[in-house]
Amino acid sequence: MQLPHRLTIVTPVAVVDEYGNPSPTLHYGPGADRREIWANVQPARSRGDPAPGRDPITASWSLFTYSPIAARERVEWRGLVLLIEGSPATWAVRFGRIHYQATLTHVEG
Fold it and tell me: What's 76's domain CATH number?
């Protein structure tokens, strides 16, 4: 499998409240860990969902990579911030390298 695209994976930081407990809020800002991976990104679908006062456009891509990725991470690619839908699939082939597959989503509007 060819991996022609370089992506940045952003691993969020859990926010700690004033009592030292992690809150459900995750931050993807400058304090979050970032790493670069090589992947193959292919367009999957694009659709517009008309709603009162708003016309969002949702675009999805299929991601294939040899680098482990997690559900709550985000992907930065070509100036977009993409969400990973669900849990990435892990494919352990009998002969060859383990690879990972995920669906990436971007909502605009």
Answer: 2.40.10
